[in-house]
Design a protein that fits this description.
By secondary structure, the chain is an alpha/beta fold. The protein has 16 helices and 24 strands. It has two domains: 7-269 and 475-493, 3-Layer(aba) Sandwich (Aldehyde Dehydrogenase, Chain A, domain 1); 274-463, 3-Layer(aba) Sandwich (Aldehyde Dehydrogenase, Chain A, domain 2). The chain has helices at residues 7-15, 57-73, 81-97, 99-110, 114-135, 171-184, 199-211, 225-234, 247-259, 283-295, 315-329, 348-364, 397-400, 416-424, 439-448, 483-486; strands at residues 23-25, 28-30, 37-41, 48-53, 142-144, 150-158, 161-166, 188-193, 218-220, 240-244, 264-268, 274-277, 307-311, 367-370, 374-375, 383-384, 387-390, 407-413, 428-429, 431-435, 453-456, 471-472, 475-476, 489-497. It has a seven-stranded mixed sheet, with helices on both faces. A six-stranded mixed sheet has the order 9-8-7-10-11-23, with helices on both faces. A three-stranded antiparallel sheet has the order 5-6-24, with no helix packed on it. The radius of gyration is 23 Å and the shape is globular. Residues 34-494 form the Aldehyde dehydrogenase domain.
Length: 499
């Protein structure tokens, strides 16, 4: 029987919810060494939310020491693969069993609709942990061809201590993208979640221990990037940093790796993804994909389809269809409302930044077709309506910069050659799409777009079998799929000579 959720249900659940904001180190909750805390403001209404430990170098040192001790002891690394698999699968089931609680924590932190948190974020987090748990007893070593006088065993071995730094837009999902493969490979992890979205990470760690993950294998330190994230990236006993976030911070992470112990780095960074629509396309499908691809999660998605490249002959018709889809299907409301499809932006400072970018775009000549305005201000929350700007050129700031808000830049083109040039005229290369009924053109075009993922006549469809990551300044290294495990391992050759 399907459960019916109402706003009253979630308000009642909120009143009974315990918000645990301490670090999780060595299998237990710990206050910051300094004793300092900070309080998150809830994006949905501007009220105080969770109070969290303000981690610093001292807390990172404790967490790394805990992770290193667990790794060196072999308490997880040397455990029988079948036993490790059972623990990971139990962890996934506990995530599902605590789905409503985790969804509430996610929504309080980031302002997205609680039903999206429950049905998308919690589900994909659990699926990710399960996917990599099921991989554990299916990872084989190799025997290299050497001839009869020797045998060379090529082993895939864990790196050691992984530092994971994750963003605030999809906290549980991206946590699972890092935790699943790194822990399945046998590593220990120190996770520094974004300061805006730490509550679900702490709960994930406690559920992991409840499932049987040994203490110290998964640690969480909360706090600000400069005070906790930077020390983690600089730490001499961390073997790798896996980071998802802005390109600007990604460049700093690479510098920290070089300044310290030349640790491995994997980066999933920003995007300004093109959605290209030719005049022969199914415009209804293209309109739905463009609206959902850009406006879902209030536009706070790294691969959001924020650049709509549309053949000039159908531009006006397509924009009207996007407006209709947005009005009928993409309801903006308080995150506890069952009707809400999108909710609040992450915080007031980000809302102000997005509004400032919109104003700058208009000064450059971008024309507002609809939306892209602050709304629901009476709630105290941070809401911007989905909007489209037209008559744009690819050199305008709204077409160049990653806005991370529900703002779509429509840029007309006349020829396929022009469309391809526009699509690739960006520093980013995370994703893209092409809409056309000409399959020769679809495949020709998709091959030429410089991006890690390209969709044909659809947008943002994927599963854990497909790798995710970018080209150019969208970073390197891949999350998801079996390939994600590779970056958390190294190859070790053991040579035996006979006679």
């Amino acid at each position: 029987m399907t459960k019916t959720y109402t706003r009253d249900y979630w308000e009642s659940a909120l009143s009974a919810l315990t918000l645990e904001g301490r670090n999780f180190i060595g299998g237990d909750y710990r206050s910051a060494v300094s004793g300092e805390t900070f309080t998150r403001i809830r994006p949905m209404d501007g009220k105080p939310g969770g109070t969290l430990a303000r981690g610093t170098v001292a807390d990172i040192d404790l967490a790394v020491a805990s992770a290193r001790a667990a790794f060196e002891s072999g308490v997880w690394r040397k455990k029988d693969p079948l036993e490790k698999k059972k623990i990971m699968l139990k962890w996934a089931e506990l995530i599902r069993a605590h789905g409503e609680e985790l969804a509430m924590l996610e929504t309080l932190d980031v302002g997205k609709p609680v039903l999206a948190s429950l049905n998308v974020d919690v589900r994909l987090c659990a699926d990710g942990i399960q996917f990599y748990g099921e991989m554990i007893d299916k990872m084989y070593d190799e025997i290299a061809p050497t001839g009869p006088s020797a045998r060379a065993l090529v082993r895939k071995v864990p790196l050691g201590v992984i530092g994971a730094i994750t963003p605030w837009n999809y906290p549980m999902i991206i946590d699972a993208w890092k935790l699943g493969p790194s822990i399945a490979a046998g590593n220990s992890v120190v996770l520094k979640p974004a300061e805006q979205s730490s509550l679900s990470a702490i709960r994930l760690a406690s559920l992991a221990v409840e499932a049987g993950l040994p203490a110290g294998v998964f640690n969480v330190v909360t706090g600000y990037g400069e005070e906790a994230g930077k020390p983690l990236a600089l730490h001499m006993d961390v073997d790798m940093i896996a980071f998802t976030g802005s390109t600007e911070v990604g460049k700093l992470i690479m510098g920290y790796a070089a300044q310290s112990n030349v640790k491995r780095v994997a980066l999933e960074l920003g995007g300004k993804s093109p959605l290209v629509v030719f005049e022969d396309a199914d415009l209804d499908a293209a309109a739905s994909a463009a609206a959902w691809g850009c406006f879902y999660n209030s536009g706070e998605t790294c691969h959001a389809s924020t650049r709509l490249l549309v053949q000039r002959s159908v531009q006006d018709k397509l924009i009207e269809k996007i407006k209709a889809v947005t009005a009928s299907d993409i309801a903006l409301a308080h995150p506890f409302e069952p009707s809400a499809q999108i909710g609040a932006l992450i915080e007031e400072a980000h809302m102000t930044k997005v509004l400032g970018m919109i104003a700058a775009g208009e000064k450059e000549g971008a024309r507002r077709a609809f939306g892209a305005e602050q709304v629901l201000s009476e709630t105290g929350g941070y809401y911007i309506s989905p909007g489209v700007f037209v008559d744009m050129t690819n050199d305008m700031s709204l077409a160049r910069q990653e806005i991370f808000g529900p703002v779509l830049a429509a840029i007309p083109f006349d020829t396929e050659e022009e469309a391809l040039k526009l699509a690739n005229d960006t520093i980013y290369g995370l994703a893209g799409a092409v809409f056309t009924k000409d399959m020769d053109r679809a495949h020709r075009f998709s091959e030429e777009i410089h991006a890690g993922t390209v969709w044909i006549n659809i947008y943002d469809m994927s599963n854990f079998a497909t790798p995710f990551g970018g080209f150019k300044q969208s970073g390197f290294g891949r999350d998801r799929s079996v390939h994600a495990i590779d970056k958390y391992c190294d190859y070790k050759t053991i040579w035996q000579q006979f006679g």
